[in-house]
Amino acid sequence: MGVLDSKVPQGPLAEKWVKHKNDINLVNPANKRNIDVIVVGTGLAGGSAAATLAELGYNVKTFCYQDSPRRAHSIAAQGGINAAKNYQGDGDSDYRLFYDTVKGGDYRAREANVYRLAEVSGNIIDQCVAQGVPFAREYGGLLDNRSFGGVLVSRTFYAKGQTGQQLLLGCYSAMNRQINRGKIKSYTRHEMLDVVIVDGKARGIIARNLVTGEIERHSAHAVVIASGGYGNVFFLSTNAMGSNATAAWKVHKKGAFFANPCFTQIHPTCIPVSGDHQSKLTLMSESLRNDGRIWVPKKLEDAQAIREGRLKPTELAEEDRDYYLERRYPAFGNLVPRDVASRAAKERCDAGFGVNKTGEAVYLDFSSAFMRYGKEAVATQKIENASEEKILELGKQVVEAKYGNLFQMYEKIVDENPYETPMKIYPAVHYTMGGLWVDYNLQTTVPGLFAAGEANFSDHGANRLGASALMQGLADGYFVLPYTMGDYLAADIRTGKIPTDSKEFDEAESRVREQLEKFINSKGTRSVDDFHKRLGKIMWNKVGMSRNAEGLKEAIEEIKALREEFWKDVKVPGGINEMNPELEKAGRVADFLELGELFAKDALHREESCGGHFREEYQTEEGEALRDDENFMYVAAWEFTGKPGDAILHKEELKYENIEVKTRSYK
């Protein structure tokens, strides 16, 4: 076991990043023209990094499995992006954003990285406004803000319920400009299947053209992994079905440490599972918790009657409703962080108060918001003696203006009108805080290999606050990597082009072909999806919202057995040298079957509860997470040694010199 060097600069917290930028090496414009960079993934982190690096003069190649960079999963983010602008005058600041993020992550994030994130957050908004991102504005024309879970200020900038889409379009326009200039070469419908290490440095990738099946070699002086998270290890998640861990897992097997895999977020406001036919879950934005109130019936007999269809939620009197988050956490109410809200919903449903046929749903009710906004509209419009129907009508119009597309989406999926009856929600796997270990420069343990956005572990600790994913992705791509990669690439100005006819490229391509041929030649009987679903059930039942030692040990053995069965009995139709979606899925599921074991191993070793990692053996009398700061205040970074179960643990001790570490409370 080794101790990791995070390379955090010395000096006061608020001066670290400024001083670091002044001290690092630069590459002059003439030399940048001779340096190549590969970016894997074109979401907000990869797209912003590619656009900015190309703008600076580097030659950039981007790779994505989608048919266009603008179809990255970042497009699905709904609620907003955080920034410490203090437009509301409610006391926000860089420090408060930093504090909320570290506290929200249950004191398991690196202090210096989080402060840098808060420090550059305001620049992100300015950048995106300049790109034309249509953020919501107040009546006077100023950018509007709303609240999100885990904070007591309004710092979330948003574009209705389409924030990720609008930010990605801004990022894509910046990319397109560089594509047009010839500074970015965009490889769509390509999947990275291995990284190439030459003399200890990342020098290229092996990619498969998903249309023709051709295996390609691409060289560069540095590689950026910005391929998102690994939530689809659970099969059912809010991630796009194509989202996968392959790029991150392949580089992990080549020497990049994987940090905190068990830190995975369960989002509290998702449309509940409706049956075994589903292949993904749909997220309802956390922004809905601003105005929606979450409740279940107070009486078990009422919950039973609702489940059986004998009672409608609108028929239940106010005094018979349990607004359990407001009851348990009066200071934050419905805006507690995601991990807290998710566990509270599970607790109520496990106790028998769930409200759908499966008993795994709670209500998100906007009736109070309709009346509140309606009364405000009546007052501003000077309507006298307005009827309750008129007030309700005006209130619904206000809510529709703020959240209309989300309400439409819900009605299309569930076939219920959320304006007339409360939404049903239940927690689901959403975001992964774990990922490739990176230092302060966002470089992995492999020189020349960087990781950005959800693909790295760096900023969210054990739980991500809402609206911070978009912030981190764009911070990494626009304002961190362009500096820190320059520091690394300054040593490559005399290197020249990296050849692709070396033995390292030969060996990497040979390994890729060997695995693909193994899939095609397998004479199994079961589909890839069958194995993926079975893995997902193991993960959700034993490594999901709550975990215990017995279940985790069982999960590890079950995943090992499932992986062995997969390689013996998977059936992959078609060939290699053609479009073959089943072959794509097979490779991704093979990686999930290894990652799942490391995930469970990490959760078993961390004998505490913190953030999204809840061990049933370690909880307070009130059922809250019980941390063990004395023994587990560190980043767990795993080194691959041949099998996931044999991974070696390396620790990065976490020190908090600018923030008081205490038990997290939202009461």
UniProtKB/TrEMBL annotation:
Keywords: Cell membrane, Electron transport, FAD, Flavoprotein, Membrane, Oxidoreductase, Transport. It is found in: Cell membrane. GO terms for cellular component: plasma membrane. Its EC number is 1.3.5.1. It holds the Pfam family Succ_DH_flav_C. NCBIfam families: PRK07573.1, sdhA_Bsu. This is succinate dehydrogenase. It comes from Salinimicrobium catena. The lineage of its organism: Bacteria, Pseudomonadati, Bacteroidota, Flavobacteriia, Flavobacteriales.
